[in-house]
Amino acid sequence: MNVPLTGGASISARTRTPSIWLSRLAELLVAALSTDDSEPVGFARYSGQRQRIRFNLATVLRRLYQFPEFKDDFAHGSDTGFLFDLESPPRGTTSKMGGRLLPGSEAKTTAALERLHQAIAREIDTVLQSAPLQSLVIPSSNQALELFARNLNVPLYPSPGIAAVVPVGFAAPSRKAAEQEKDVARVLSAIETVDGRDWLERLLKGIENYLRHEDLDNDEIQPILASIRMQRGQPGS
């Protein structure tokens, strides 16, 4: 339920957690990668002249968007769409989702992703039937780094000639090795102190720029900045 805003705060309680319908999307992608005559759809293409393989996602996505099932199943609605039980975030904030599957679709998602994996592998195998695999690999990592640097037009700095590995111990010297093997975890804590006079103003300037980019008015931005400045004098801030 939603409680009307009567003061300085609001409460929103969800009955269901937002989720994604990944299984249906994977099923439709498998259909977009399949044809009746078992011919490649153009997702992968091999260039013998340049000795490289290219993946054309636009071809698959174009087929996907033309499916009537895609338009019907992913239309915005209470029982359709890719995102379920999604609430728009408050103004000036951003929400991210995607880590929870639609309840009840876990088994279908696993099966659909396996079929998608097989469809992509089948497409690549069909395209590479006459291509030597040796032409698609680079003999050494040094050659690969040199090729990347040349294509990106960036300098390639030499790697250090000597690498030193320094052992670090966290357990007390009096403890035996057999006792340390039973440890579940070790916790490290540290406090970083930054010596700077204008760090707060630089932080506030970045926050102000972001809030203005989100179309907040100056009357809304200034109280936020003032609240952060007040917290500067609190212990542990």
SSE order, as H and E?
EHEEHHEHHHHH
Mean pLDDT, to the nearest integer, reads 78
Biggest β-sheet: strands ordered side by side in the sheet: 1-4
Radius of gyration: 28 Å
Task: Offer a few descriptive terms.
4 strands, 2 domains, 40% helix, mainly alpha, 237 residues
Describe the structure.
The protein is mainly α. It folds into two domains: 19-150, no CATH class; 195-237, no CATH class. 40% of the residues lie in helices and 5% in strands. It has a two-stranded antiparallel sheet with strand order 1-4. The protein has a two-stranded antiparallel ribbon with strand order 2-3. Helix 1 (22-32) packs across helix 2 (57-66), helix 1 (22-32) packs parallel to helix 4 and helix 7 packs antiparallel against helix 8 (218-231). The chain is extended and about 70 Å long. The model has no long low-confidence stretch (mean pLDDT 78).
Summarize this structure briefly.
This protein is mainly alpha-helical and 237 residues long.
Strand-helix topology:
Layout (H helix, E strand, L loop, with lengths): L18 E2 L1 H11 L11 E4 L4 E4 L1 H10 L1 H6 L9 E2 L21 H22 L13 H12 L24 H4 L18 H15 L4 H14 L6
Antiparallel strand pairs: 1-4, 2-3
Helix pairs in contact: 1-2, 1-4, 7-8
